[in-house]
Structure formats: C-alpha cells, structure tokens
C-alpha cells in the first residue's frame, strides 16, 4: 500500500531513514522532484509518483541550494490542497528563482509556456516524460542562467546526455526548466513601471540550429517602438505579470506564436537591464520620471 506521508530532505542519511520507518513514511530528496506547469494545471512527481498520492508532506530540511525550491513546492502544495509542514516555507520571498516566478504566473492565470522542472542529476529519470509531454525541439534553461547562458535547444534524445548534470554553466548546482518550443512571430521586452507599460522594444531573434542557443545576428540591435502600437490586451498581460510577482519596475518578455497569434510571457525580470544611451532608448527618462513621481506621492 502506498505510504501517505512524504518526508523531504536535502540528503538521505540513517537518521531520516529511521524517522521514515517509525512514521511509516516515504523519504525522498529534492533531487527526486519534477514539476510540470501547464497553464493553471500543476503536476509534481516524486520518484515518479504523483505528489497527490500523499496526504501530508514534511519538508524536514532544505539547505541553501534547495531553499527556493522548498518555497516553490509549498506554493504548489497550497494549490493542490495538500497539508505540509512547516507552513513557513510558503512565506519565502523574492529570490530570483525562475521556477517560483513561473508557478506564481501560472497560478495567476498569466499565459506562460508549458514548463517542466527537474534537477540535472534527475534528467535521465524524467527525460522520457519530458519528451512525451513536449515533443521536439525542447528548450532547456538552467534555473540561474542569464543573458543567453545555460540555454539549450534539444532536437533529439541523445542531446539530453550533453547537458551538464552536476554543475551548470554559471558554476551552480544544475537545475533545469524544460519548455515546449514556440515558433515566434515576434518577441518584445516591455518595461512596466507601476501600473503601465512605458517602454517597449523588439528582441533580437535567436538561432535554434545548434544545441547551445545564441543570437541569430550578433550585429542586430533591438528596435524601440511606440507603446501605442502594441495592443491594450498585450500591455494588460505585461502589467498583470509584474503585479502577480509584486514587482514595481519590471521587464516582461512577451512572445507571439507564429500561426496562432497566441501570447506567452516568457520571462519577468526584476531589476531589468537598461540601455543608457538616451539618444536611442527612453528607458532612463521614463524610470527617472517614475521614481520622482512616486517620491512626490509618498
């Protein structure tokens, strides 16, 4: 019979095994977790077993490398209606963790690409599941990657073996977000200040022809557009995305799918990068006006 209690730790030793036996509980590590975020539907597997099979989850220990993951798990357990201890994990704040952001966006009804998370060392266990859910190509992103680092385009099963399993490109524990490939008609970065989109520019297209993702044209620059040229519906999605993450100054990357016109939020950035050349970009002027306005309002 399936054990109905799950004890989750960062490392399994003889003491936690003893606790598991005494409590008639299943013991697992954070590395055994897999998250599948598909719209507002969230599925979590633990060693291949659906977490809804458990009535109680005890997050026994989470070291610094798994602390954000414990917070993400807590939010999912809240949504799934599964009791867990300790409840304090649900209060883990902003940490820059992309998985947490995708979960919050998904729960808030913001359109995001289907996303599956697992640890690098657990890829072999879950790669067939990922392929079955997404098909090829699959985009793999290291959880802490930035500025095109740690992003891969996987076109066949063998390429899973080429992903770093222990230490990622940023010299951190390898953790991955796998996303269904979306053929893009267009992609934009929205600078949202408070309740409004104030700046929008195009994104430089990417080259998906090799395993390691790169820009298709390194000499191509973004083009700044009139905000009014973007539909109010898309602007509303950008504003809703930052609000769902409690961000007041955010950069929202939004893509429009080729052929369907569907809109997806690819990423929301706290502390987004700015182009400081005021002859090209209005970002510095708009941020300065926003800060001064908020200062007066306070």
TrEMBL record:
One of its GO terms (molecular function) is ATP binding. InterPro entries: ATP-grasp, ATP-grasp_RimK-type. Residues 102-295 form the ATP-grasp domain. PROSITE patterns: ATP_GRASP. The keyword ATP-binding applies. Keywords: ATP-binding, Nucleotide-binding. GO terms for cellular component: cytoplasm. Gene3D superfamilies: ATP-grasp fold, B domain (3.30.470.20). This is ATP-grasp domain-containing protein.
